[in-house]
Write a structure and sequence with these properties.
Blueprint lengths: L8 H30 L3 H29 L17 H21 L1 H11 L21 H31 L10 H11 L8 H18 L3 H23 L5
Helix pairs in contact: 1-2, 1-6, 2-5, 3-7, 3-8, 5-8, 6-7, 7-8
Amino acid sequence: MLLADRHSVPLSIALHLIPGALIVAVYMFFAEPLVLDLGYPPFLAWAIAMGVALAPLELGLLLWLGRRRNGRFSLRGVLHYTGKPISRGKITAVIAALIVWMTVVSLALVPMDNFFYNQFFTWIQYEGAGGSATTYLDGYSHNATLITLALCLPFTGFLFPLIEELYFRGFLLPRLPQLGRWAPLFNTVLFTVYHFWSPWTYLSKVIFLYPAVWLVWRKKDIRLSIGMHPGTTLLMATVGTLAVLFGVMP
């Protein structure tokens, strides 16, 4: 059923949202108490929760399905949109444009995220919650912040976004042919809701993610969203870490 070319809408909703629920559960019951007892920012707790829940569940499911299909750990036949139909030169230019789009628009919409948090989500009890992702770092020493960012950089900056693209765009999105042109919007919205830890950013995420998701669906080339999502998060995480290292940010 999971390897079929079409997932039912209820199944697809479950496959989109269950990983997010597990990430929150690991954070609340394990990662947050551990990290706060050690005196580090809750950003590290979210990274640990993703390492415990996101990576094994999403990538583990893909590899398990690949083994069932191919008799070995392989993503052949599990992932779609891997045929590389776009030329190397063109895809490089499009990915560069998407990275600029995601970076500029996500930063420009931070005031909107803050507005939604302050108006509707102050009741959320996550430690350090706020309109911007950097609030999960506020109030901690320079050394604790720098160690947290350095430890998280390869994971939250690249590995976890890469796994998300393989799972959400390479595995789930292609298996919604019955939705036609609504499939990329359906996938974008559910991927946004999957981020249960930051519901105040739902609208901004849909705005800056949808163009890449639509292009992946339209062009049947997963490299587009892989280039944009891990590319942008790695860029922003690296810049943020260097800013803290050199004292540009406290």
